[in-house]
Design goal:
Number of strands: 6
Shape: elongated
Helix content: 40-55%
Order of helices and strands: HEHEEHHHEHEEH
Strand content: 15-25%
Largest sheet: 4 strands, mixed
Amino acid sequence: MKIDEIMNRKVASIRVGASMREAARLVRETQVSDLMVVDADGGFVGVLSEGDLIRSVMPHYDELVSSGAAPTGALELFREKGRKMRNTSVDDLVIRNPITLAPSDDALRAAATMVSKQIRRLPVVERGKLVGTVCRGDICAAVLDEPPHPSA
């Protein structure tokens, strides 16, 4: 079974240079944990994870100590840091050169990679362009049920 038989062509993507606020909204709206980052021409740039978004606004230990914040005040520091960073570009958080798949790759290779590297979703790239993604659920459905996305 090839990736192009099971990949999802409807991809949650965001443009390079987008703000952290835009990324947070898209993560919430699409319910995905990884956004695919593309340039203005649809060229694949990398992956932005919701975990990296959260980590970027979490107060560091030294910030908590220097502020003298009690545990209850740490939440306010978290919110304040988020307010300050919401218009910051996501570019520094983008994972560039991530593991990618080609439409012609075998689904077993994708499954083995996802399990061994603890990755939930992989981008599918063809000639430098993002053409889809494959998640663990796509593979499970293809192997245990039926392909969730008809080939188009």
